[in-house]
C-alpha cells in the first residue's frame, strides 16, 4: 500500500508568511490606535493650545491628506514596489508624530496631523498591495479577517489607554508613545516587503491630479466656511466646484445621484460613514468639555462603539456565509443605516441631559456601532459583487475615497459650525448640537440611498423573468 503524502495547506502564520503577517497586522494596529487615541485626547490639546476654532481640522485635515496619500501610495506601489512605499510612509507618519508631540500651537499640531495622514494613507495602501502580491486566494480571506480583528484591540483599549496617559503624563505622551510601535512596524515590514516587485502590467492612467483636486478643493471649501469675509466666499466658490469635479472622476458614474446598484452602494457608504465619523469626532468633546467627564471615562464610552462595530461585522459575516444573495445584502445595508439613524440622534439627547449623559451616550453609541458594523463591511462585499470584470481595484479605491472624503467633509463642517457658534456668542454645547444636526441630515439621506443599493438586482430579476416569458 502506497501512502500519498498530502501537501499541507498554507497558513497566514506559517514559516513563509509569518513575518509578513505580523508586519501587516502591526501596521493596521498602529493606524487604528492612532486614530482612536486622537479622538479621545483632541478636546484636551485643543483647549491647551487655544484652538477650539480649529477643532474640526484635527480630523478633516488628516483625512484629506490621507486621501491623497492613498492614491499616491497605490501608484508608487505599482511602479516602485510596496517596500519603498512602506519606508516612505513610515518616515512621513513618524515625522508627523514628532511634530504633533512637540507642537507649541494648534496650527503646528495641524501640520503634524497632515503629515500623519499623508504617511498613513501611503502605508495602508502598501500593506494592501503586499496582501495581493504575497498571499494567494486561499489565504486572503483569513488575512482580511485578521486585519479586521486588528482594529478590535485598539478599539477596546486605545481610547481608555490614551485617556489614562493624557491624565497621568499629558497628551503629548500619546504621540511620543506611538513611535516605538512605528519602529517595530518598520523592522517587520521594510526588509520583508522590499523583495516584492510589481509584475509588468499595462500602466494605468494616473489619478493623482483628481486626488489632488479633491484634497485641495475640499480643503479650500472647508477653509472658506471658517472665514467671515469675502475671502471665505472666494474659497467656497473655487473649492466647491473643484472638489465636485474631482469626486465625479474618482467614483463610479452616477454616484453623486445615487444611481441604483454600485453607485448607490458607494454613495450610501460615504454618507453613513460621514455621519458616524462626524458624531464620533465630537463625542469626546461633548463628554469632556461639556459634561466634565475624564478622558479615561470618555475612552471607555468610545470603546463601546468599537466593540459593537466588531459584533456587527461578525454578525454580517455569519449571515453572508449562509449564502445570502445581493438583495439580502442590500437589505442588511439598509438595516445598518436604520440602526445608525436610531443611535446617532441619541447623542443629541445626551448633550442636553447632563444628569444621565454618560449612560444615554453609551447606549446610543453602541447602537450606532452595531449599525455601522452591519452596513460597512456588507457595502464592500456588495460593491465587489457589482464590480465590472477586472475593475475590483478601482471599486476598492472608490470605497476608500468615499470614506475619507465624506468623513473629512462632515468633521470639517462640524468644526466650522462649532467655531461659528462660539463666534456668535453661543455656548460650546450649541455648537456641538449644530454639528450633530448636520450629521443627522447625512444619515437620513443615507437611509434613502441605501434603499437603492439593491435596485439593480430587482431590475435584473424582472428582466430575466420577462426573457423567460414569466
What secondary-structure arrangement, pairings included, does this model have?
Layout: H1 18-48, H2 57-80, H3 82-102, H4 106-134, H5 140-149, H6 152-168, H7 172-193, H8 208-226, H9 230-250, H10 262-290, H11 295-321, H12 326-351, H13 357-386, H14 392-423, H15 428-450, H16 455-467
Helix pairs in contact: 1-4, 1-6, 1-7, 1-10, 1-11, 2-3, 2-4, 2-8, 2-14, 3-4, 3-7, 6-11, 8-9, 8-14, 10-11, 10-12, 10-13, 10-14, 10-15, 11-13, 12-13, 12-15, 14-15
Brief description of this entry?
Helix content is 80%, strand content 0%.
Overall radius of gyration: 22 Å
Instruction: Supply the helix-strand structural class.
Output: mainly alpha
What is the CATH-assigned architecture of the largest domain?
Up-down Bundle
What overall form do the CA principal axes indicate?
globular
For the residues shown, what is the average pLDDT? 80
Q: What is the CATH topology assignment of the largest domain?
A: Growth Hormone, Chain: A
For the biggest sheet, the summary is: none
CATH superfamily of the largest domain: MFS general substrate transporter like domains
Domain count: 2
Structure description:
By secondary structure, the chain is an all-alpha fold. The chain has two domains: 12-197, MFS general substrate transporter like domains (Growth Hormone, Chain: A); 251-453, Up-down Bundle (Growth Hormone, Chain: A). The chain is built from 16 helices and no strands. It has helices at 18-48, 57-80, 82-102, 106-134, 140-149, 152-168, 172-193, 208-226, 230-250, 262-290, 295-321, 326-351, 357-386, 392-423, 428-450, 455-467. The protein starts with 17 loop residues before the first helix and ends with a helix.
